[in-house]
Design a protein that fits this description.
By secondary structure, the protein is mainly alpha-helical. It contains 40 helices and 10 strands. The strands form 2 sheets. Strands 1, 2, 3, 4 and 5 form a 5-stranded mixed beta sheet that branches. Helix 31 links the parallel strand 7 and strand 8. The longest helix has 31 residues. The N and C termini lie far apart (105 Å). About 3% of the residues have low confidence.
């Protein structure tokens, strides 16, 4: 509030400011002379008072905004000079406050008329306060108080107008049309400098709007949110839209709870739930200065009383201290590192700036305000005095910071008075900097620079002492501030420097975390850990070539987590785990999608022995037995199998991704996992079948695995090729259960249930896609095959390609006796003496047919390229089928690698064998990585950069071009070996 008594410009002190230069001075004097022709009283006043004329000319030369206003509204200038300042300001504020009221004849003003009245009042008040401030008739305290009163009056008037309009349209029923806001339950809080009555010259105003439905003015409670939200959109338009009369105040409603997902006006109950459960550190600081500035003031004051425990905590415990330190890390924004430079310095956010003084005060208010109500002040200067009285700071600190605060506020006002712009940046050039210096009363630039530098250094020193033990969020990487709603410009620069191409998207994502929109970030403690982790998290992600893509995958992962504090704590204390997460997000979209969709798979990564322990069959068998032990029914077994398989597949993949195991070892581990899962699924299925249909006399079942399942070469994305074999007592007609089935239907039902158990999608996903096309007669044959039919078909009817597939067969699980019988049949079939030429011809024709019908898409299609995996596998299968019955190891379940080594001696050149093994190893290693990391084909130009690096590592090549050359060389040579070994034999 301004001091008592009234002042005029007649007594302005000589030389209080000096003009920008003589050229500008002459131009302004000429304009004043022209204005004087139409305003004789003004001309006479200036003619009689050279000091006044000199001041006015200097002021207009320094501020283009004031000069343009005087030229456009000479009556405004004349009135300002002729009358007393305070009464004119009181009149302007009164005009603003009553802008909504009907005119003399009772006509309610239109919205356009209200907007005009407010703008005229604002123009008058802004012009007067600027001149009074420059003349040093007002100090910073008075200037901010008058501007704050004007803003409050404008907000109140706009709200009253909107409520009255809603009343007349039937949307609300006011208690009093003479006092629309009274008892309305509509709460408009002024935040920041408006709340503290410290509004700067060209400030925007921050408002937060709530409504209490219990006030009963809304005719339909279901429409309340929509009604008040529309009202607030009009409020913003009334205040900030630029018209021919200018604007009133730029208005920001983004300090409300979670503004990205909430309406402009929020129910009081919802707001309290938000602040009690998800309120953020910076919001606590923001509400220190909040106060009702419009609408139902009584309801607003009641709301602020309810919010007090959120802002000022009753006890000072360690969690509160950590919370307060977190505010410092989030809000603290150093602008321009190194020595303080005046040119281009941000007097609000820069080092030693206004923000540091405000934060110095607010931090101690949050610490002690819960126990000491005297510290719950709004204004900065008053709080400094109270902190001194409470012995939290000494008198010297209070005096120093108070003097620095108002010096910087004066500089801020002058920066904004130049062109009525909301900026806090000092000019970069001497010419423009002189303008600020002269407006501030300095005789020259050197004097202003010296005073400003000393002020900034004093503030910086006092501020640093308060937090000297704390690490800064503004580290050597640069500024990282994610508080509030607006992007911090220096933070965007830092993100770009770290390697992000879309820094605004990254900044918005991080702010989403801080708003607690995800379960993982809803607790204060989780956000604390996340704040601590942020600089390192962004740095590590930024080191990737496609940092944005990887970071947004991480966001999807965070969104799916049920809680975050454990993960954030682990990542903060375990750099290797953080690097692993970043590695997944940057190089393995498929894995990233898996953990985003099913975060539980991540649990296994928390095992410190993960990378040290190999995923052997014994290792996996112990874990699956333990995991299934508590399952009580069939559906739970299937769900637990899916959870276990997803987690273990993921963990095998992590070992592969980090290089802890090779692609060959990964293939064997994926296969062991499949064996155990299929076996457990079969046990569960048989138990269900028996419960419903009983046992079949002498019934026995065994599962035969083929393809990559049979040869221990599964990848992360492989399906499984199965044949279900069965047998039963010859004289048995049906099962012995309450719902008996004949043998065909019984074992068909077993097979169908097994397929469903493995491949049916549930809430926990799918175990495996099942392919049964390799059974006798393929899709035309029955899904379950009796062992005698299987033997007859393989020995009498099967084609060469079916025997090729059988060479990779392996019994997975089932009845031991049936397994032994099936193994004997397969071994007997494979050892059958065949005509080498015919087999060679069949193999060559089949390869040619595949090449014709499924040509390779590119060099990375390792399976189909000439000289690729199919060629190598066909060579091995040809050797297996044509091997002398007495040669080689007859054990089933050989990998392609093992088969080549077992069947090639004496039949292939040793160098050719080594070449095939080298190519097989290369193709296997790369295929395992690619299938792990992405779905679909690999294209180096489109693949994540991290995956390209992994592929190069798997191929033991320094770059992708070298690797492509190696692939071409090996595939070309393998094709020659295929032709020499198979085609030539035909």
């Amino acid at each position: 509030m301004a001091e008592t008594g009234a002042h005029g410009f007649s007594g302005v002190t000589a030389g209080v400011i000096r003009p920008l230069n003589q050229t500008e001075l002459k131009s302004v004097l000429a304009e004043l002379k022209d204005i004087g022709k139409g305003e004789p009283a003004l001309a006479g006043k200036l003619a009689d008072n050279d000091t006044l004329k000199d001041f006015l000319a200097a002021a207009l030369s320094l501020s283009p905004y004031l000069r343009d206003t005087a030229a456009a509204h000479p009556d405004l200038l004349a009135a300002a000079i002729e009358g007393e300042i305070e009464p004119q300001l009181e009149a302007a504020i009164s005009d603003a406050r009553t802008a909504w009221r009907p005119v003399g004849d009772g006509t309610v003003p239109s919205e356009a008329e209200v907007m005009t009245r407010l703008r005229v009042a604002k123009r008058k008040a802004a012009f007067l306060t600027a001149l009074a401030d420059l003349a040093r008739i007002f100090d910073g305290r008075q200037t901010t108080a008058w501007l704050s009163r004007l803003a409050e009056a404008a907000v109140m008037a706009a709200v009253d107008h909107l409520l009255l309009a809603a009343h007349h349209s039937g949307k609300v029923a006011l208690h009093s049309v003479e006092e629309p806001s009274k008892g309305s339950g509509l709460i408009v809080l002024g935040m920041g400098k408006l709340g503290a009555r410290e509004l700067n010259y060209s400030s925007d105003i921050d408002l937060v709007v709530f409504f209490d439905i219990a006030a009963g003015i809304v005719r339909d409670a279901d429409d309340a949110t929509d009604t008040f939200a529309r009202m607030m959109r009009r409020l913003v338009r009334i205040l900030q839209e630029r018209t021919a009369d200018g604007y009133v105040f730029r208005t920001d409603l983004r300090l409300r709870p979670d503004p990205g997902s909430t309406p402009l006006a929020i129910p009081v109950e919802a707001a309290m739930i938000y602040y009690e459960g998800r309120g953020q550190n910076w919001e606590r600081a923001a509400y220190i200065k909040a106060r009702p500035v419009g609408g139902d003031i009584v309801a607003g004051e009641a709301f602020m009383r309810e919010l007090t425990p959120f802002v000022f905590r009753k006890y000072l415990d360690y969690a509160a201290i950590a919370d307060i330190h977190s505010i410092k890390r989030q809000i603290h924004a150093h602008k321009g590192h190194g020595a303080i430079a005046v040119k281009g310095h941000n007097v609000k956010l820069g080092r030693g700036g206004i923000r540091e003084i405000e934060f110095f005060v607010q931090t101690q208010q949050l610490i002690a305000g819960g126990r000491m109500p005297s510290l719950r002040c709004k204004s900065t200067e008053e709080t400094l005095r109270e902190l001194t009285a409470a012995k939290w700071i000494d008198q010297a600190t209070c005096d120093e910071l108070t003097e620095c605060y108002w010096f910087l506020r004066n500089v801020e006002h002058r920066i904004q008075m130049v062109r009525d712009e909301q900026t806090h940046l000092l000019p970069e050039t001497d010419v423009e900097l002189k303008r600020i210096a002269y407006m501030n009363g300095s005789p020259d630039l050197a004097d202003f620079t010296e005073k400003l530098s000393a002020t900034l250094k004093t503030v910086e020193s006092r501020y640093a002492k308060l937090f000297e033990q704390e690490t800064k969020l503004s580290t050597e990487t640069g500024n990282l501030v994610f508080t509030g709603q607006n992007d911090d410009p220096d933070t965007l620069k830092t993100l770009a420097k770290l390697g992000f191409e879309r820094p605004a998207d990254i900044s918005r994502t991080v702010r989403t975390w801080h708003y607690g929109r995800y379960k993982a970030t809803q607790s204060v403690e989780a956000r604390e850990r996340l704040t601590e982790l942020m600089p390192e998290l962004l740095r590590v992600f930024g080191e990737n070539k496609r940092a944005d893509e990887a970071f947004l995958r991480f966001d999807a992962f965070i969104a799916g987590l049920p809680a975050g504090i454990q993960l954030f704590s682990l990542l903060g204390n375990n750099p290797a785990l953080l690097s692993l997460i970043v590695n997944i997000m940057s190089s393995a979209p498929r894995l990233a999608d898996i953990i985003a969709a099913r975060p539980h798979v991540f649990d296994g990564m928390l095992d410190p022995g993960l990378l040290a322990e190999l995923p052997t069959r014994d290792y996996l068998e112990g874990r699956i037995r333990q995991f299934l032990s508590s399952a009580r029914h069939y559906e739970e077994v299937l769900d637990r199998l899916r959870i276990f398989a997803a987690e273990q597949r993921f963990l095998i993949g992590i070992r592969l991704l980090t290089g802890a195991i090779s692609g060959v070892v990964a293939g064997r581990a994926f296969t062991h996992l499949a064996d155990l899962v299929i076996s457990a699924a079969l046990d569960a299925v048989m138990a269900e079948i028996v419960a419903v249909h009983g046992r079949f006399p002498g019934g026995r079942v065994a599962v035969l695995g083929l393809g990559k399942l049979g040869s221990f070469e599964l990848t992360a994305g492989s399906d499984v090729d199965l044949i279900l074999l069965y047998d039963y007592d010859e004289d048995a007609a049906e099962s012995d259960g309450t719902k008996p089935l004949d043998p065909v239907r019984y074992f068909t039902r077993v097979t169908q249930r097994l397929i469903a158990a493995l491949s049916a999608p549930t809430a926990e996903g799918v175990l495996f896609e099942v392919d049964m096309r390799l059974r006798p007669s393929g899709n035309k044959g029955p899904v379950a095959t009796r062992i005698t039919a299987f033997e007859k078909y393989q020995k009498e009817e099967a084609w060469t390609w079916e025997h090729m597939a059988l060479s990779r067969a392996r019994l997975i699980c089932g009845d031991d006796d049936l397994i032994k019988r099936a193994e004997a049949i397969v071994t007997d079939v494979l050892r059958t003496k065949r005509e080498v030429g015919k087999i060679a011809k069949d193999v060559a024709e089949m390869r040619a047919l595949i090449e014709q019908e499924k040509p390779a898409q590119d060099i990375w299609d390792f399976k189909m390229i000439a000289g690729g995996l199919v060629d190598i596998e066909f060579i091995e299968q040809y050797l297996a089928l044509t091997a002398p019955s007495s040669d080689g190891d007859a054990a089933l379940g050989k990998s392609t690698f093992e088969g080549l080594k077992a069947y090639s001696p004496g039949r292939m050149d040793a160098n050719d064998v080594d070449l095939c093994l080298e190519a097989l190893t290369l193709f296997t290693e790369i295929s395992q990585i690619v299938r792990l990391c992405i779905d679909g084909t690999f294209d180096p130009k489109e693949a994540p950069s991290g995956l390209v690096d992994l592929v190069c590592r798997a191929g033991d090549c320094p770059d992708i071009k070298t690797l492509e050359g190696e692939i071409k060389r090996l595939s070309k040579d393998v094709r020659k070996v295929f032709q020499a070994t198979v085609k030539n034999s035909a």
